[in-house]
Structures are given as C-alpha cells and as structure tokens.
C-alpha cells in the first residue's frame, strides 16, 4: 500500500477494526517515511458472471433495482430493499465462492423476497424460474399457500 502523501510503499498498521456490517476491515496505517497516517478499507471481491461471460463486481444497488421493479405498487420500503440486498450478499458470500453466475444471484433473491412480499416474489420468480404458462404460476401459488401458516398471513398473503 503506497502512502497517499509521499508515495512510499512501506507503512505499518496502527489499528484494525471490522466495519459495522462486518463486510470489511478498516485499517489505520502510518507511513514509515513521512509518519503521516491514513485509512484503508479491505473487502473481499465477489464477481458476478453475466450470461455473456463478462464478469463484474457484485453490486447491492443492482439487486435493489431488479427487485424494485418486482415491488412496484407493493408496500415495500427502500429500507426493506436495502436489508434484502444485504441478506442476499451475505448468503452469496457465505457460499465461499469468489465468482457466481448472475442467474444464481437471481435465485438467491427468491427466498428473502418471498418473506418480504409474496406478490413481488411471484413477479420476480416468473422471470428467474422461467414461468411459461398459467400452470407455472398456479404451482408457485400452491407452494406459497402450503408454506403459509394459518393465522399468520397478511392481507396480501391471504389474497393469494
């Protein structure tokens, strides 16, 4: 790590702390040559491989934007979407893979989205599970009904 002040390649770590969400390490460093201090943030890289074969860094904002379309007109807040994106990223990182297919990211969204809003889940699932007919929707609704426990459903869930 080069010192941002004098460009010296030698520095020592003075303090290390895990960030609030636990996804990165914040390090305070001191340059061995000029003595000035600076901060670095270390994170693990997670690459998403698109259908075209091109890789790009994982982005929570892309997860949020994709799910936001499925949630249009639904009682879902921006905070709900941010928490969903965090949950998806944590699940993907827990797999231990440095690279993941874009389709797998979509599938990883399904579980948290089902808990958040079942109508949005059906909209999203219709794309990522390649629904081709009304029977596909009916089968997904039947699964949701079986999983729904009596007395715990919201109005949106009981409308299914």
Helix-strand blueprint:
Layout: E1 11-18, E2 24-31, E3 37-43, E4 47-49, E5 55-57, H1 60-70, H2 78-94, E6 99-101, H3 102-116, H4 118-128, H5 134-147, H6 155-158
Parallel strand pairs: 4-6
Antiparallel strand pairs: 1-2, 2-3, 4-5
Helix pairs in contact: 1-2, 2-3, 3-4
Structure characterization notes:
The protein is α+β, with helices and mostly antiparallel strands. Helices cover 45% and strands 20% of the residues. Strand 4 and strand 5 (55-57) form a beta hairpin. It has helices at residues 60-70, 78-94, 102-116, 118-128, 134-147, 155-158, and strands at residues 11-18, 24-31, 37-43, 47-49, 55-57, 99-101.
Summarize the structure.
By secondary structure, this protein is of the alpha+beta class. The protein has helices spanning 60-70, 78-94, 102-116, 118-128, 134-147, 155-158; strands at 11-18, 24-31, 37-43, 47-49, 55-57, 99-101.
| Sheet with the most strands, sense and barrel status | 3 strands, antiparallel
Q: How are helices and strands ordered from N to C?
A: EEEEEHHEHHHH
Q: Give me the side-by-side strand order of the main sheet.
A: 1-2-3
- Residues in helices, as a percent range: 40-55%
